[in-house]
UniProtKB/TrEMBL annotation:
Protein name: Aromatic-L-amino-acid decarboxylase
A Pfam family assignment: Pyridoxal_deC
GO process terms (BP): amino acid metabolic process; carboxylic acid metabolic process; catecholamine biosynthetic process; serotonin biosynthetic process
Highest taxon in the source lineage: Eukaryota
Protein EC: 4.1.1.28
Pathway the protein takes part in: Catecholamine biosynthesis; dopamine biosynthesis; dopamine from L-tyrosine: step 2/2
UniProt keyword annotations, A-Z: Catecholamine biosynthesis, Decarboxylase, Lyase, Pyridoxal phosphate
Record-listed N6-(pyridoxal phosphate)lysine modification sites: 267
One CC-aspect GO term: cytoplasm
Family: Belongs to the group II decarboxylase family.
GO terms for MF: aromatic-L-amino-acid decarboxylase activity; pyridoxal phosphate binding
Cofactor(s) in the UniProt record: pyridoxal 5'-phosphate
Oligomeric and partner information: Homodimer.
Length: 438
């Protein structure tokens, strides 16, 4: 959709909304559809090829409006999460369907998903211990709980531990292991903590870390967590979108061992903020941790997977429905592949210049690089780049080195933008190096 069509479609959408408001009194206050009505009206999977915009808009009236007050909001969320789960080829345990025990729910951010999973894990751990030792005080349990994450994990993981009131231990990673958590390291920390009287209960694995897009070895880590009855949550906030491509799906191998999985569809899947998609293997773990049962929320289908949703007023799933249909699975895959190709193009430019070095493997759309030299030189270069206001880079520290991160983010980025960015970077690098004392 180019800008000309976007203007036209935007005006049409305003007319549709205005018509709805003008005729709202002709509609029923309460929907006359039965819960579960929506799933039979739309396909079980996302389309491979794009649908037309006209067909999508027609389906608003056909599919959504009959249950607009409720239950369309919540039912569409469940179905869209199943669509996306199938695009990712998640195990059946994570698909709600009509009889599944798991399913997906949309959060606002990956930070929220990490916290939700942690709180659910804490609740499950406490209940498991009380089931075998009913006389044990709950405070005596929670004070012993310990959670784990990589030292490369996003700061929100540590913050989740602070909010939940549990200790969070960082697992050290090494450059030689490509900054990925190793199974043996986790196993050793668990055994040491158990020997000290602590209760390991939660591990947050990361697929696509913020600093360098590193991938924890969940095929090693998952069986350890399962054997120790530790909840394994997988945070793939950025990288998760790429798993819809068959060539990147192996990065998710080991998902079958996880209790929960999350990524931000608003990061790399063309869905507008906010839309952070989270799946759990047993939705009863989440429902049990946060269940409130006031009279005004009671209904006949509240235990059904159709209603496994956080807030039926936000309607985030409608954004997913539009994007999946307008682009189709192939269109979304092409979009991701193009970004990866552009990242590889930038990587080749960096490697061809002997003044620079690549600091981490380029797996997806992130390139970590730096000038060969001191951290101070690279800090100066970054300030020059960002002060120029033509491109913006965010740094990280890898093994004590100050590293520049070139991230492919924009829908409209082309090869010429990569070349222009590199020309600017090398020009500023030359200026910085000329100012160094000889």
């Amino acid at each position: 959709m180019d800008t000309t069509e976007f203007r036209r479609r935007g005006k049409e959408m305003v007319d549709l909304i205005a018509d709805y408001l003008e005729n709202i009194e002709q509609r029923t206050v309460y929907p006359d559809v039965e819960p579960g009505y929506l799933r039979s009206l739309i396909p079980e999977e996302a389309p491979e090829e794009p649908d037309t915009y006209e067909d999508v808009v027609k389906d608003i009236e056909r599919v959504i409006m009959p249950g607009a007050a409720s239950p369309a909001c919540t039912e569409l969320e469940t179905v869209m999460m199943d669509w996306l789960g199938k695009m990712l080829k998640l195990p059946e345990d994570f698909i709600a369907g009509t009889h599944g025990q798991g399913g997906g729910v949309i959060q606002g951010t990956a930070s929220e998903a990490t916290l939700v999973a942690l709180l659910a894990a804490r609740c499950r751990a406490v209940r498991m211990i009380l089931a075998s030792d009913p006389q044990r005080p709950e405070t005596g349990i929670t004070s012993k709980l310990v959670a784990y994450s990589s030292d490369q994990a996003h700061c929100s993981v540590e913050r989740a531990g602070m909010i939940a009131g549990v200790r969070m231990k960082k697992i050290p990673t090494e450059q030689s292991d490509k900054y990925a958590v190793q199974g043996e390291t986790l196993r050793r920390m668990i055994q040491e903590d158990k020997a000290a009287g602590l209760i390991p209960f939660y591990f947050c694995a990361t697929l696509g870390t913020t600093p360098s897009c590193a991938f924890d070895h969940i095929t090693e880590l998952g069986p350890i967590c399962n054997a120790e009855k530790i909840w394994m949550h997988i945070d793939a906030a950025y990288a998760g979108s790429s798993f819809i491509c068959p060539e990147f799906r192996p990065l998710l191998n080991g998902i079958e061992f996880a209790d929960s999985f999350n990524f931000n569809a608003h990061k790399w899947l063309l869905v507008n903020f906010d839309c952070s998609t989270m799946w759990v293997k047993k939705r009863s773990d989440l429902i049990g941790a946060f269940e409130m049962d006031p009279l005004y929320l009671k209904h006949d289908h509240q235990e059904s997977g159709r209603y496994f949703c956080t807030d039926n007023s936000l309607f985030r799933s409608l954004k997913m429905w539009f994007v999946f249909r307008i682009y189709g699975l192939k269109g979304l895959q092409d979009y991701i592949r193009k970004h990866v190709e552009l990242a590889k193009e930038f990587e080749s430019l960096v490697r061809a210049d002997q003044r620079f070095e690549i600091s981490a493997d380029v797996v997806l759309g992130l390139v970590c690089f730096r000038l060969k030299g001191s951290n101070e030189v690279n800090e100066t270069l970054l300030k020059r780049i960002n002060n120029g206001r033509k491109i913006h880079l965010v740094p990280c520290l890898l093994s004590g080195q100050f590293v520049l991160r070139f991230a492919l983010c924009a829908r409209t980025t082309e090869s010429r933008h990569i070349r222009e960015a590199w020309q600017l970077i090398t020009q500023l690098a030359e200026e910085v190096m000329q100012e160094l004392p000889h």
